[in-house]
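ZP: hey, is the NA7 complex queued? I don't see it on the tracker
AM: it wasn't, my bad. submitting now with these inputs:
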Amino acid sequence: SAAREGTRTDVLVVGAGFAGLAALAMLHREGFDVVGVEREHEVGGTWYVNRYPGLRCDVESMHYSYSWDDDLQQEWTWSERYASQPEILSYARHVVDRFDLRRDIRFDTAVTALRFDPVHDRWAATLSDGSTVDAQWVVLATGALSTPKPIDIPGAEEFRGEVLHTAEWPHEPVSFAGKRVAVIGTGSSGIQVATEIAKDAEHLYVLQRTPSYSMPARNRPLTPDEVARWKARYPDIREAGRHSLDGLASPMTGKNAFEVDEHERRARYEEIYRAGLPFAFFGVFDDVLVDDDANRSVEEFLAEKIRERVDDPALAEKLIPSGAPFGTRRSCLDSGYYEIFNQRNVTLVALRESPIVSITPRGIDTTRESLTVDAIVYATGYDAFTGTPTAIDIVGAEGATLAETWADGARSYLGLMVAGFPNLFLVTGPQSPSVLSNVIVSIEQHVEWITRALADARRDGVVRMEATRDAEQEWVDHTRAVAESTVYRDASSWYVGANVAGKPRVVLPYVGGVGGFRERCEEVAADGYRGFARRVRELA
Ligand code: NA7
C-alpha cells in the first residue's frame, strides 16, 4: 500500500523466528521503533517451515524457551519433555500475541536487498512487495539453518512421484500408507522423519551416506509436579545455563576421561544415555572434545548401544559412524530409529558402498540397484549460517556485497557484525556459539547485547557502529585457534561448510562455549565497545 512505501524506522528486524521475536520484544521494551519482516505467513521460523512428522527439538522444552520475562516462563506450560513441532509453534504464537508483536511484522514479505547509505549512515531495504524501509539499524535474525542446501543429485528433476523436503513440508497431512518411500539423508531430520514413515509405509528405503550418532530421547509427558519444581528454580537454572558450555549447564565431572577408571567412565556415559541428554556427553569429561582417545571412549560406548538395538550385526556396523570424531557432526535424539531396521518393511541403503548414480522418473539408481518408489523425502540439510544472509543482496559501506565479503569463508566479529557493514547486526552469526548450544540461550545473549549496544548508541549520540577489520581478524583467528585445539579440527560436516559443494571450509560455530563467549562480549561492551568503531553524529 502507498502508506507502506518509504517507511522510516529505527530498527529493521529481518525474520520472525525465535531470534526475530526476541529482537522485536527487547527493542520494543527499550523504546525503539521497529519494523519486522518475515518471508513466511506466520512466526516461528524453522518451527514453522519444518513440520514433518516426528519433528521434535533435541533440547528439553523447559530449557528451549525464553527466559527474559519471568511471567512468560511461569505462565507457559510445556506438555512433554521434548516438545513436538506443533507445540513449539504454539509457543512462538503465544509469545507474539502476549507481547503484541504481530502488528510490527510484515508477513509473506522477504527483504530482497539492503543498501548502506554512508552519507546518512542508514540502510535502505527493498522488500519483495516493492516497498522500501529506511532504517538506521538492521538486525538479521535470519537463522543459522534456514536455507535448504540445493538438491545436488543428478536427475532429481526427472522424478515423477511425490517429492518432499523436510524443511519445506506441506501444510496438508501427508499419508505414506501403502507407499514405497525413499528418505535421503540421516541427520537429525532424516532420522526423525524415517522413524515416523516406517510406521505406515509399505516400504521405506533409508539412504545413508554418513551415519550419525543417535540416542533414545526418552520423551514423555511432564508431570505437573516436575513442571512446578522446575519453575520454582527457573532463575537459578537459567543463570547456570547462561554461564555454561552448552547453555544447559549439563553436569560436568571436571575430570579427564581417563582420570577415572573404566567402571566409573561407563557409569557416567550410562547415566547420560539413560537420561536421554545428548549434549551432556560434550562436557562430562573435560577432554571429550579435545582428546582423541577420550572422544573415542564416547564413540565406543555409543557404538555398543547401536549394536544392542539392531538385530542384524552386519547391518548395525553400517549404522555406526566412523571417520569424524564424536561431536563434530550433530548427534541426534530419536524415538525408535535403530529399531525400524528390524522391521521387514525397512531397508538401509548404504551409499558409501553403493552411491547414488542418478534419480530416475521412477526412483533412484545406485551403483548396485534400481529402487522404485512413490515418494522421495529429501532430508539433505542446509546451507548453514551463510545461505540466508548471502541470498539477500546486501551492499555495505564500501560497495562490496556480503556474498563477496564471505567468498573465502564467513567472517565476523563476535558473530555480531561484519567489517564493512556498519549498523548491521547478526543473531546466531558465524563464529558465535549458536548451534553448538541451546540456541535459545545464545539468541537471548546476542539480542540482549545488540539491544544494549543500540541503547548505548542512542545515549552517546552514536549514529554509526561497525566492527573494525583488526578486531574481526583477531576474532576469526581466535575462533580458528580454539577449534584447532579440539576435535573440530577434523570436522567434515555442515559445521565447517563441508556439506555444500564449493563452500569454503571455515569452522562456522564458535566452539568455545556460551559462558566464555558471553564474558568476552560483556568485556568488549564494558571497554567502550572495544573493536567496534562508533561514530558520533556531527553537529552542524
Ligand atoms: P544435516 O544434519 O545436514 O543432514 C543432512 C543429511 O543428508 C546428511 O546425512 C547428508 O549426508 C545427507 N545428504 C546430503 N546431500 C546428500 C546427497 N546428495 N546424497 C546423499 N545424502 C545426502 O541436516 P538435517 O536437516 O538433518 O539437520 C540440520 C540441523 O537441524 C540439525 O543438526 C539440528 O541442529 C537441527 P552427508 O553427511 O553429507 O554425507
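AM: back. The chain has a mean pLDDT of 96.
ZP: great, adding it to the tracker
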